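Budget justification aside, the reviewers requested a transparent look at the raw inputs and outputs of the sequence design task funded under Objective 1. We therefore reproduce one unedited record. The lines immediately below are the structure tokens for a 129-residue chain.
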């Protein structure tokens, strides 16, 4: 498996799709990188030469923040929001949706799949001791 920026890239996928395994690179950016390097996007990763892989890696490292740097930046941004106590930071702290979604019914992605329902009927009386 070829490695680009410390990430194993799958061999049997097209290079356009394989580059999306790197955190911070989606399909549009992958297509843009391959146009800059002049590599056919439909080419399989296993068919690439070492020179082509090196050119792809050089363009990514020189022009874009990916993997560890990007993760640190995102974590730092969230930490800053929490410190200043803004609305988005408070939502991050509480583990609730941040971007205005409703929480009455459908917020299971962020809150987890915990179903809280009322019990039916009254509790039975406690046993005498």
């Amino acid at each position: 498996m070829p490695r680009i920026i410390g990430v194993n890239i799958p061999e049997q996928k097209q290079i356009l799709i394989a580059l999306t395994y790197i955190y911070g690179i989606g399909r549009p950016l992958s297509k843009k990188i391959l146009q800059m390097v002049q590599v056919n996007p439909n080419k399989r990763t296993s068919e690439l030469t070492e020179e082509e892989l090196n050119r792809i890696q050089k363009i990514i490292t020189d022009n874009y923040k990916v993997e560890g740097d990007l993760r640190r930046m995102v974590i730092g941004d969230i930490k800053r929001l929490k410190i200043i106590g803004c609305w988005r930071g408070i939502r991050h702290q509480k583990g609730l949706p941040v971007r205005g979604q409703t929480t009455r019914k459908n917020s299971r992605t962020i809150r987890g799949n915990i179903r809280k329902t009322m019990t039916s009927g009254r509790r039975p009386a406690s046993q005498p001791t």
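The CA atoms of residues 97 and 109 lie 9 Å apart. The longest helix spans residues 67-84. Computational costs for records of this kind are itemized in the attached budget.
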